[in-house]
Design brief:
FAD, five-stranded parallel beta sheet, alpha/beta, 400 residues, oxidoreductase, binds flavin-adenine dinucleotide, FNR_nucleotide-bd
Length: 400
């Protein structure tokens, strides 16, 4: 018992008031950092806790275990709930059995803690499809163990070196994948990192026939991975896609396909995990997501759950190109949604919000055109507006 760092009473202590604790941006005080040997002695000042039952519900399909396990059989030791509900043996934990990773709240984005040449082994803990069977292509959610000392923040990428040799007999070059989880990882133990990987397929432009000989190496290995398979990983990489420091700033996210990955991380941080970041977020998060067919919407249950939880603070606008039409009668893409909502998007960014773009390179020309036309309609110079947003670090693009 006794007051924690924030002066609030702990569970079981006199005066403990969960609502007050929550309102102050904290959770159950962290009892014991030594649950995680590699984090011993490293303490953050904020209190964090996770309620596995709540997290499970938020996954939308029962629990995280069931969802990730929908693929090739996720095997967390004792199940995800057991993972949290019980302290590790030999460790005396007083009060609530909670995970103790408060210092992760203090993380600043750093790059290349693990360099490619020193790549570390990551094991596949879970893999499962994140789009429906009726959607074209193959996109998998892959949960990997993250090597000790590998810490990342939302919006960074993981470097993955595929196994085997290239055609010249040399080791393959590393590929980057946006991290789709928060710094806590999908198991909230700070020991995993999740990716959203699209299998790169190749079809003959003339015949349309698939050519497996030209299929993507790394994405193929990741999408075919089984629980227990290992990959050489390094990173984290990138500081382009970081959440704003100001918790009242709006967060506008524009993605196509796997471009949703960093935004899943953002939204989990803002709406799913009961951390100080979620408690203090006072802005609006608005996701624009473009996919070809509705079965291709990524993580739909999660976004539904987060919208409910966000109570209006999370908005999701989808463009489903093969099912919806734009004003001109053509296929509807994200840029058409941006055009429709342009005035509000501009107002939000001009009021201090940040706008993020992620997905295939090909999405940007259409988006820039749409943004320019919205500027023109409002009598604004697009060049000046964009330069201002870039200068203030409100404009973030990561396309590949
Ligand atoms: P490669 O083997 O490198 O092949 C590349 C492409 O060439 C493939 O499309 C392949 O089909 C084609 N090809 C192969 N052989 C031939 C040939 N002979 N002739 C013509 N074409 C051929 N991807 C994701 O899925 N999810 C992400 O979140 C993600 N995030 C990224 C973030 C960043 C910052 C960057 C830079 C990239 C990201 N990528 C992401 C892309 C990813 O890094 C890889 O580029 C992608 O997975 C393809 O790699 P691969 O090894 O599978 O394909």
């Amino acid at each position: 018992g006794g007051p924690n760092a924030g002066g609030l009473a702990e569970p079981g202590a006199k005066g403990y008031n969960p609502a007050e604790v929550k309102a102050n941006g904290g959770g159950v005080p962290v009892s014991n950092y030594s649950l995680q040997p590699q984090f011993m002695g490293r303490e953050g000042s904020k209190d964090v806790f996770f309620d596995p039952a709540e997290l499970g519900k938020l996954q939308g399909t029962g629990d995280l275990e069931a969802r990730v396990g929908g693929g090739s059989g996720y095997e967390a030791p004792g199940g995800v709930n057991a993972y949290y509900a019980k302290p590790m043996p030999d460790v005396e934990v007083k009060g609530e059995p909670v995970e103790a990773l408060a210092f992760l709240e203090e993380l600043q984005a750093r790059e290349r803690l693990v360099k490619d040449k020193d790549g570390k082994v990551a094991t596949v803990l879970g893999i499962g499809p994140c789009i429906g069977e009726d959607a074209p292509g193959d996109i998998q959610h892959v949960v990997l163990s993250s090597p000790p000392g590998f810490e990342y923040v939302e919006g960074q990428s993981l470097s993955v070196t595929p196994g085997g040799k290239d055609k010249k007999g040399k080791p393959h070059k590393p590929r980057l994948y946006s991290i789709a989880s928060t710094r806590y990882g999908d198991l909230c133990d700070g020991k995993t990192v999740s990716l959203c990987v699209r299998r790169a397929e190749f079809s003959d432009p003339a015949t349309g026939e698939a050519d497996p000989a030209k299929a993507g190496v790394c994405s193929g290995q990741l999408c075919d991975a089984k629980v227990g398979d290992t990959f050489k990983v390094a990173g984290p990489v990138g500081k382009t896609m970081l959440l704003p420091a100001d918790p009242s700033a709006d967060v506008i996210m524009v993605g196509t396909g796997t471009g949703v990955a960093p935004f899943r991380g953002f939204c989990h941080r803002l709406f799913m995990e009961p951390t100080p970041a979620a408690h203090t977020f006072a802005g609006t998060a608005w996701l624009f997501l473009g996919v070809p067919v509705s079965a291709g919407l990524l993580y739909p249950e999660e976004f539904e759950a987060m919208k409910r939880r966000g109570g209006g603070q999370l908005r999701v606008t989808t463009a489903i190109s093969r099912e919806q039409q734009n004003a001109g009668g053509g296929r509807k893409y994200v840029q058409d949604c941006l055009r429709e909502e342009g005035v509000e998007v501009f107002n939000r960014v001009n009021a201090g919000g940040s706008i993020y773009f992620c997905g295939l390179k090909g999405m940007m020309p259409g988006i820039l055109e749409a943004m320019e036309s919205v500027a023109k309609e409002q009598g604004l110079s697009w060049e000046e507006t964009l330069n201002g947003w870039k200068k203030n670090k409100q404009w973030h693009v990561e396309v590949y």
